[in-house]
Amino acid sequence: MADYNEDYRFSAQTKNAINLQTLHRHDPIICLIRPPAAESFRFSSASITLPLGLAFIAAALREAAFDIKIVDAVGEGPDTRTNYCKGYLVGLRFEQVVDRIPKRADIIGITVVFTHEWPAVVRLIDLIRERFPNAAIVIGGEHVTSLPEFSLLTSKADIAVLGEGEETIVELVRTLREHRQFTNVAGIAYRQADCVQVNPRRERKINVDSIPTPAWDYFSLSTYHQHRFEGSLYSSRMTIPILATRGCPYQCTYCSAPNMWLPRWIARDPVKVVDEIEMYVKRYGAGNFPFQDLTAIIQRDWIKAFCEELIRRNLNIQWQLPTGTRSEAIDAEIAHLLKKSGMTTMSYAPESGSDRTRRLIKKKMTAQKLFASVDAAASAGLDVSAFLVIGFPHDTPEDLAENLPFLDELAWRGVSDIGINFYMALPGTELFRSLYEGGRIKIDRKYFRHILNALAPIPSQTYCDSLSRTDLMVWKFKMFRRFYGATKRNAEAGLMSAIRRALHGAFSRGDHQTKMETAVRQALTSGAESMLAIFRPRYMKRSDERAMFASWDAVYRRIQEQMRECGAITGTSGDTTELHRTNVIPALLKEHTTMRTIASVPVHRSS
Fold first, then answer.
1. Res. 73 pLDDT band, cuts 50 70 90
2. How many Å apart are CA 103 and CA 118, to the nearest integer?
3. For residue 596, which of 5, 78, 419, 590 sits 20 to 30 Å off, Cα-Cα?
4. Nearest by Cα to 441 from 423, 467, 458
5. Eight-class DSSP state of 242
6. 458 near 473, Cβ under 8 Å?
7. Are 388 and 419 contacting, i.e. CB atoms less than 8 angstroms apart?
8. pLDDT in tens, 541-568
9. What is the DSSP letter of 551?
10. Within 13 Å and on the Cβ side, how many CA atoms surround 304?
11. How far is CA 154 from the centre of its chain?
12. What's the average model confidence in pLDDT over 360-384?
């Protein structure tokens, strides 16, 4: 049996991968797709949310006067569930998505933010290709940016947009419509005969205030709100995500942001951010705004100006930082302004209570600065939570034991809830490359499943030499028990309070004030849906799924070999404890600026 994608060619009549001569020339339209979202059991306040990146892309294309159509699988099928390789998919079934694509679509764009959704997208692309054999299928998002060659060689997509997409997609569409070559289009990878050609990345956009406001009028905001797809604490007020800054200046080894953005933080004008919020209040009646920034609070002057502008306008809104932020800029004055401006929850992401672990993952944070920031936030009346990760490859029982007194300190100082995740080996990160070089990762079905298991009670994978899956499960339970049983400075924040919050989250229909409430409701909902998923239709036949995954590791390995041969990358140490000694920027710049051609190598196997 031939490789899953071995005999695929975009068109036998073309000079290269893209043949626009046979495309519809009468009123062509661009169709942008948000595919079904992958879910599984999770004890977390995070959830499916509105596709902010796709809304930015839609706005950029509309401003450039292109005719577009959105197919939002989640918003158009919020109650539909499909059995997935792990958990379930939320949203229209693939055939329904394809049926909604306009017949005159000549360019079909698909957003792929999360790696665990890639197998589903591959299947969706198969069906789109069958129905639209001559359309250009374009993929983009953080997963695609992390694995551009792999994404094209394991699917029937034609072009990948890398990094920030607004300028790139507009130039790409013009190039396609004018039948020009792709050679000079920065920030893309594309199929060319049997190869994938990767162009140098586009420079980061400095004037972020000139980027068009997300085109939310293409999406059913009310549907997301009614189904609690908010990505943060539940609020009865209409929720719209916001992005006030882009990028992150740090180089954490477990994070894909350096590869996506390079380690550079660029902030918008705080007044313009408030302008956007006010527009949403007036246009949509929105009142709750989760900020999806990687690290929103870095510069004290910026966050102070932002809060003061919100206070001055008296918009009567609430806002959140659900993904965690830095602590250095938050003192008593800033914390007071955060609370007064409408912030409800403050999330920190120290990742570990172990000094050694934080050093090895390049987490530039000291415990004392974090504690001081927590003191200020809690004193201002903010609900404070913290995120920890266990199971880093270099974690030892001694490292995890250091989390226990660390959790005692957080509890005493006013942190009300914690989230404990298992380490995920995300592509595009330093740790992933080190683990792969060391032979500890194989790109197969098990790999994609482990990412969805990061929030489960038991991990499906461990990369620690000294900690088994059972060990990690026990440590997670021990850490939860230690934190919620710890002595609190505020008696209202103790164990009984946590139980009351859990019950409120499970049974109340009112607003949530803490992450515990939303996390409990998410756990009950996702747990029930995961069990019911066994009886749902599968996203593809098991035999087809096995065939799809069978060659993926060999494909990725061959890509890595060719990238080393052309000088795009150099060898990475398989010892994860050595990564903190290096500056990742030179290596990223080399990879991002190297134009390269990666050949497809058929992999044969028996059926």
1. very high
2. 25
3. 5
4. 423
5. B
6. yes
7. yes
8. 999 999 999 999 999 999 999 999 999 9
9. T
10. 9
11. 20
12. 92
Q: How far apart are CA 512 and CA 60, in angstroms?
A: 35
Token pair of 368 as six digits: 């004392």
- The whole-angstrom separation of Cα 299 and Cα 350 is 18
Res. 15: pLDDT tops 70: no
- Paired tokens of 585: 């920027």
Contact 270, 309 (CB under 8 A): yes
Q: What is the pLDDT of residue 346?
A: 85
Distance, CA of 322 to CA of 235 (rounded, Å): 13
Percent of the chain with pLDDT over 70: 92
Of residues 45 and 370, which shows the higher confidence score?
Answer: 370
**In sequence order, what are the residues at sequence separation of 6 or more whose Cβ sits closer than 8 angstroms to the Cβ of residue 141?**
53, 111, 112, 113
Minimal CA–CA distance to 547: which of 156, 123, 138, 127? 123
Report pLDDT for 489: 66
d(Cα 157, Cα 168) in Å, to the nearest integer?
17
What per-residue confidence (pLDDT) applies to 20? 41
Interatomic CA distance for residues 115 and 437, integer angstroms:
19
Q: Which residues is 70 bridged to in the sheet? A: 32
Could you tell me where the DSSP H helices lie in 39-117?
A: 52-63, 73-76, 94-99
Which residues, including other chains, have CB under 8 Å from residue 601's CB and lie 6 or more apart? 554, 555, 558
- In degrees to the nearest 10, what's the CA dihedral of 305, 307, 312, 313? 110
Beta bridge partners of 19: none
| 495-512 tens-digit pLDDT | 667 777 767 666 777 787
Indicate whether 27 pLDDT > 90.
no
Contact 581, 253 (CB under 8 A): no
Q: Which of 362, 336, 360, 366 is nearest to 348 (CA)?
A: 366
Closest CA to 188 of 596, 601, 566: 596
- Between vectors from CA 321 to CA 316 and to CA 326, what angle results, nearest 5°? 130
Q: What helix, strand, coil percent values describe the chain, rounded to 5?
A: 45, 15, 40
Residue with structure tokens 């997963």? 143
Residue 70: what are its φ and ψ, rounded to 5°? -105, 130
pLDDT digits over 116-171, tens only? 999 999 999 999 999 999 999 999 999 999 999 999 999 999 999 999 999 999 99
How far is residue 528's CA from residue 548's CA, in Å, rounded to a whole number?
28
CA–CA dist 603, 421 (Å, integer): 36
β-pair type (88-90, 37-39) = antiparallel
Q: How far apart are alpha carbons 74 and 263 in whole angstroms? A: 32
Write out pLDDT tens, residues 213-257.
Answer: 999 999 999 999 999 998 887 888 999 999 999 999 999 999 999
The per-residue b/e assignment along 350-364, b for 16 or more CB within 10 angstroms, e otherwise, is bbbbbeebbebbbbe
- What would the two tokens of residue 314 be? 């008296």
Contact 435, 393 (CB under 8 A): yes
At 494 the pLDDT is 61
Average pLDDT over residues 5-32: 51
Question: Which residues, in sequence order, are bridge partners of residue 238?
Answer: 286
Given a contact cutoff of 8 angstroms between Cβ atoms, the answer to whether 233 and 346 are in contact is no
* Helix, strand counts (H, E) of the chain: 24, 19
User: How confident is the model at residue 523, as a pLDDT?
Assistant: 82
pLDDT at 606 over 60: no
Q: How far is CA 143 from CA 111, 186, 292, in A?
A: 9, 18, 17
